[in-house]
Design brief:
The protein is about 40% helix and about 20% strand. The chain is an alpha/beta fold and about 500 residues long. The structure holds nicotinamide-adenine-dinucleotide (NAD).
Length: about 500
């Protein structure tokens, strides 16, 4: 069976630990590989490589680092089909969706190509007589990135390209569910000219993560994953003196106003609720219909579209939705659907019990729709992370907005309406990090920043865009003066005021 190694100091390595974990093909249920699970000693080796590579890499002019990023972007582009096949095999999403995962990641590499401009400082001449001031952005040091299973290309690419473009060195610890695509990306970075030791990858689980969070030579940690783990990462890494950004889970609501075009809204909900089998942190899992008339029309429009979803292995033609990632995920989602029924929600479409000929052991599920969901139900409270959409009925706009704002998560939300006033009010008052107006999945482009509020993000800094540059750099302010030699002003004990 294939064994997936670590990549440290530019070379594949088995490392020192003899622990491994299984990697499955979710469409067939077959185990397709064993992934190595790093020990603290393996993490040590990766950190030592990153630390050794730091002085030379950080001293390289940003323009030369940018040229490597340009080549890296071209290589990812050239290998899109190969990378997409890896994603589909281990994650289960469709090939087209996997290509979207890669392209959204590449956009951050394209953004990182602008690093000479992005790291440019500010200069003020004559802040006092003959005194100039400037501020510059410098690299932070050795950075670590810990990523989830659901975007094996995009989320690693949110992190390491921008981090190294800023002059840092990096250790990536991707999800142990689908590590092949991130590994190939790190190989391509080397092919593009990234020197040995600048980007390293360790495979692993909690043991590897804990070793990174507590390591004395790691300066900053980026994390994306579920909320309980994000909160643990933030607290542990911060306690060990690191800069941290930890993005967590979500429960994204889409408010459908009575004046909305119901067909447009329901098409948007099909993509946002069932794309990638609902395993996106920006998936819409709650539709808040304002008024019973809009709710009835919405549910009536959704039902046939959900029943007609083309479900199958992600590498087959014309498939819209693949399986969920693991057997455990499938069982958890099935349990939550059962709880929804027990707690009194109306099961408008039941996605349980789907069997696909030839794929009986795959982790497939049909799309599920609940109506008349209320805030006290498990299907509302839990992040299901599967193809399950809940419709909640709100009596008016204010109670819909209150519901969005009461929710513990604050990743994304959307409003569908033709009313500019309502849309403007919503964008202003929603306590949520990313808001869409007639856009269901408002994932910001690379030159804006991605991040939620409340329990969807621990830390202050969002991913990529200028927030990403700020996270991966430290600001230094310099005040400088070149007095004419021989001119003396005498000493002064008062606070310098530059007058
Ligand atoms: P996860 O939290 O289980 O795992 C994420 C990473 O943390 C993995 O690399 C994993 O190995 C590691 N990990 C898991 N348990 C750990 C522990 N106890 N201690 C230390 N490390 C641990 O998440 P997942 O199932 O891979 O991904 C799905 C979750 O990620 C969902 O909750 C989703 O909303 C969230 N997510 C959030 C965003 C965002 O931008 N906010 C984006 C994508 C996914």
């Amino acid at each position: 069976m294939k064994i997936l190694d670590h990549l440290i100091n530019g070379a594949a390595t088995a490392g020192l630990s003899d622990r491994t974990g299984p990697v499955f093909n979710p469409a067939t249920g077959d185990q397709i590989a064993q992934v190595r699970l790093a020990s603290a000693a393996d993490v040590d080796a990766a950190v030592a490589a990153a630390k050794a590579a730091l002085p030379e890499w950080s001293a390289m002019p940003p323009l030369r680092r940018a040229r490597i990023m340009f080549r890296f972007n071209e290589l990812i582009h050239a290998h899109t089909d190969e990378l997409a096949a890896m994603i589909t095999e281990e994650h289960g999403k469709t090939i087209e969706d996997a290509k979207g995962d890669i392209l959204r990641g590449r956009e951050v590499v394209e953004f990182a190509c602008g690093i000479p401009h992005l790291m440019r400082g500010e200069f003020t001449e004559d802040v006092g007589t003959g005194v100039d001031a400037f501020s510059i952005r410098q690299h932070v040091g050795v950075c670590a990135g810990i990523t989830p299973f659901n975007f094996p290309a995009m989320i690693p690419l949110w992190m390491f390209p921008l981090s190294i473009a800023c002059g840092n060195t990096f250790i990536l610890k991707p999800s142990e569910r689908d590590p092949s695509c991130p590994y190939r990306l790190v190989e391509l970075a080397h092919e593009a000219g990234v020197p040995e030791g600048v980007v390293n990858m360790v495979n692993g689980d909690k043991q590897a993560v804990d070793a990174l969070l507590t390591h004395a030579n790691i300066d900053a940690v980026s994390f994306v994953g579920s909320t309980p783990v994000a909160s643990y990462i933030y607290a542990t890494a911060a306690e060990h003196g690191k800069r941290v950004q930890a993005l967590g889970g979500a429960k994204n609501h889409m408010v459908v106003m009575p004046d909305a075009d119901i067909e447009q809204a329901s098409d948007a909900l099909i993509g946002a609720g069932y794309g990638s089998a609902g395993q996106r942190c920006m998936a819409v899992s709650v539709a808040v219909a304002v008024g019973d008339e809009a709710a009835d029309a919405l549910v009536g429009s959704l039902i046939p579209k959900i029943q007609e979803l083309k479900i199958g292995p992600g590498n087959a033609d014309d498939i819209e939705m693949g399986p969920v990632v693991t057997k455990q995920a499938q069982e958890r989602i099935l349990n939550l659907i059962g709880q929804g029924v027990e707690e009194g929600a109306t099961l408008a479409v039941d996605g349980r019990g789907l069997q696909l000929q030839g794929y009986e052991n795959g982790y497939f599920m049909g799309g599920t729709l609940f109506d008349h969901v209320t805030e006290d139900m498990s299907v509302y409270k839990e992040e299901i992370f599967g193809p399950v959409l809940s419709v909640v009925r709100a009596k008016d706009y204010e109670s819909a907005l209150d519901m969005v704002n009461r929710n513990e998560y604050g990743n994304g939300t959307a409003i569908f309406t033709k009313d500019g006033d309502a849309a403007r009010d919503f964008t202003e008052r929603a306590q949520i990090g990313m808001v869409g107006v007639n856009v269901p999945i408002s994932v910001p482009v690379a030159y804006h920043s991605f991040g939620g509020w409340k329990r969807s993000l621990f830390g202050d800094t969002h991913m990529h865009g200028m927030e990403g540059v700020r996270f991966y750099t430290r600001l230094k302010a310099v005040t400088s003066r070149w007095p004419k030699s021989g001119v003396r002003e005498g000493h002064s004990l008062t606070m310098p005021t530059m007058q």
